[in-house]
Structures are given as structure tokens and as C-alpha cells.
Amino acid sequence: MFADVQLVVFCIAGSDYADVCETPDGKFANKMMEGAKLFESLVSHPTFHGMDFLLVLNKFDLLDKMVESSRLANCEWFNDFDPVVSRHSWQEQSRANNCATMGQMAFHYIALKFKRLFFSLTRRKLYVALANSLDSDSAGAAFRYAREILKWKEEMPSPDEDTLNTTDMYSTDLGSYSG
Ligand SMILES: Nc1nc2c(ncn2[C@@H]2O[C@H](COP(=O)(O)OP(=O)(O)OP(=O)(O)O)[C@@H](O)[C@H]2O)c(=O)[nH]1
């Protein structure tokens, strides 16, 4: 049924780090952690063995706003997120100086967490894009990135494409594929 699948797109909301959901056994748990568990079970499932994955971190607009008031480190999985920030308004200052905003740093950090998890399970590279689905340009950019991945795979089947180097680990550059 999934034999012809070339790329699995897994979508998770960046804002989930500060949200809870009900688990099947009626308890409440952090939504990002539950999402990560689901991701892990899909990636580890024999059906998806050897397949490429693209993680789309959606609701980036919410993440970007929320990390100012609700610490990313409040989510257990992200408890070592500790960027050095100025006491002055970080977002305004960053945007004015063309630096990464707290939300962008949070995105890179979350992307790296998922990349490490994926690599530990598969020894392969995870592709990551961010999206704000309410903005069609941003959502379109994530899907253009998916098409690019498929094209690269067709054009450049490399014998060592399954290996992960440092550049791959950090290949979440916002400018290259997200709107
Ligand atoms: N701000 C913002 N809202 C979004 C985004 N994507 C979806 N939404 C809104 O989120 C709400 C829930 O939509 P979905 O994410 O499709 O639904 P869901 O996954 O069942 O619900 P959640 O668990 O709340 O995410 C809707 O009101 C959407 O319009 C986004 O990127 N940014």
C-alpha cells in the first residue's frame, strides 16, 4: 500500500510545546511530547522502513509569539533550551538588527531535537521545514521544499546519502525553504 511512497510528510504544530492533550488512557500529557511519540512510532514502523521523512513544523507564527511569554524549556523534552537573550524586547531588537528571533532559534532547536531522534532511529537525515498554514506563501514553500527533495533524490542518488554530517544536522536554514 505504501510501497510507492517516496517521502513521508509529518506535520506537527510548533505551539504544541505549551499545549496538553488527552492520551488514550484518559490522562493529560504535553502535546509536543505526544507528537514526538507518534513520530517515533511511525518512523520505527516496518511500513516506513528506509523512507525519507519531511517534518513540517506548522503554526510557526504562534511559536514565534508564544516563546516570548511561555518558555520553551517548560516542555520537558526542551529543558536545555537556554539562549542568551537581552533584557530588552528580544523580538523587536532581533528584527531591527536582522538577527534570529527567539521563535527562529526555537524552530532550529526543535528541528535539531527531531533530527537527532530520527537519526538515532534510522541513521538517516530528517528534512525539516517550517510553515504557517494561514499564510499560503509559507505553506507553499514547505511543499516546494518537499518537491525539491523528491527532485534531488531522482537526480542525485548518492551512495552516502544516508549518512549524517554536521551540516545536515543543522540544515534547517529558514531562508532556504520556508516563506
Ligand atoms: N495561527 C495559526 N493557526 C493555524 C495554523 N494552522 C492551522 N491553524 C488553525 O488551527 C486550528 C486547528 O486546525 P488544525 O491544526 O487543522 O486542527 P487540529 O490539528 O485538529 O487542531 P489542533 O490540535 O488545535 O492543532 C484552526 O483554527 C486552524 O485555522 C497556523 O500555521 N497558524
Automatic annotation (TrEMBL):
Residues 157-179 are annotated as: Disordered. The keyword GTP-binding applies. Residues 164-179 have a biased composition (Polar residues). This is Uncharacterized protein. The keyword GTP-binding applies. It holds the Pfam family G-alpha. It comes from Platanthera guangdongensis. PROSITE patterns: G_ALPHA (PS51882). Keywords: GTP-binding, Nucleotide-binding, Transducer.
